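Retro notes (design track)

What went well: tokenization of the new backbones is finally stable.
What didn't: we kept losing track of which sequence belonged to which structure.
Fix going forward: every design gets posted as structure first, then sequence, in one message. First example under the new rule, 297 residues:
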């Protein structure tokens, strides 16, 4: 049988369970990559290897996020991205009394090329008798190719989803090698965002002397907020001075811009704290390099 592969966009409002579903689907055989092929807004968050195929999951921020956070252009860019994928997984929660699909989204979906699966997540939290009316109601909103109720947390219904995904994916090459197990987590990506801001905002000599470690990455239980503490490591006091800037202005700009990107990546508010630390000659010390997660050249 021919090998099948394709790109799958996961979309849905914050907190519907996108990350939980991704982690549940990826399970052990996990390759997460942060590469940015072609367009910068195609963010590959995970690759799942299955017998005879490969699922490449994409994070396409911006479609369902709260109004005001993102401008129309960004929404359009995100829509364009999901227009190019092979499958869209739209996640919703099954709770009564809320509009499960934001106004206007159904209209936008209609214009898309790829098939859309509606994933009704968190069914462990509702009376199963409420499910059928919900499915019927959603079916009138849009011609979803599949409507799949599941619980990402309890890992119920995942096998069916995987089977349906495999069915719709086209024949294609393995985009990523099987042995790629880089284990880049959201935590890692957060560090990369800070490094990217440093590259953009500071003079040339600083970035190459920089490493970023994320000391703490804590999701608050009581509200949608992630508290992140990170350290920027540099080699010399002069570099620390540049990074901090006049009156702390540079560090503030770095942190502010990084936080905005993180919120987009994570789909939630972020409280970010960043420190700068001088560690003499870290870039020449292979033990230190490993600690910071870089390969030795
Ligand atoms: P995201 O913002 O869409 O990525 O949502 P998360 O994956 O971070 O999940 C948000 C919250 O919903 C977390 O507290 C999860 O544990 C919870 N959650 C996700 N899926 C399920 C589910 O199937 N059942 C239940 N009860 N909780 C879930
Ligand atoms: Mg998430």
């Amino acid at each position: 049988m021919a090998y099948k592969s394709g790109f799958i966009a996961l979309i849905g409002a914050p907190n519907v369970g996108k990350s939980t579903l991704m982690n549940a689907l990826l399970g052990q055989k996990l390759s997460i990559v942060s590469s940015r092929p072609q367009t910068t807004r195609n963010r590959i968050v995970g690759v799942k290897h299955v017998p005879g195929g490969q699922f490449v999951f994409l994070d396409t921020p911006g479609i369902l996020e709260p109004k005001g956070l993102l401008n129309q252009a960004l929404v359009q860019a995100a829509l364009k991205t999901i227009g190019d994928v092979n499958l869209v997984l739209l996640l919703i929660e099954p709770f009564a009394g809320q509009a499960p699909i934001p106004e206007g989204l159904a209209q936008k979906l209609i214009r898309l090329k790829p098939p859309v699966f509606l994933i009704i997540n968190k069914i462990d939290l509702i009376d199963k008798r409420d499910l059928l009316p919900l499915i019927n109601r959603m079916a009138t909103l849009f011609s979803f190719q599949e409507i799949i109720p599941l619980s990402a947390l309890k890992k119920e219904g995942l096998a069916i989803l995987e089977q349906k995904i495999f069915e719709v994916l086209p024949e294609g090459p393995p985009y990523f090698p099987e042995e790629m197990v880089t284990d880049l987590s959201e935590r890692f990506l957060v560090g990369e965002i800070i490094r990217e801001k440093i590259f953009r905002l500071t003079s040339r000599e600083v970035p190459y002397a920089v490493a970023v470690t994320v000391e703490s990455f804590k999701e608050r239980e009581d509200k949608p907020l992630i508290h992140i503490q990170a350290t920027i490591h540099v080699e010399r006091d002069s570099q620390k001075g540049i990074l901090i800037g006049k009156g702390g202005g540079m560090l503030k700009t770095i942190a502010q811009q990084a936080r905005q990107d993180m919120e987009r990546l994570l789909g939630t508010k972020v409280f970010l704290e960043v420190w700068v630390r001088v560690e003499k000659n870290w870039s020449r010390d292979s033990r230190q390099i490993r600690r910071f997660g870089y390969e030795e050249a």
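Added context from the reviewer: The longest strand covers residues 225-234.
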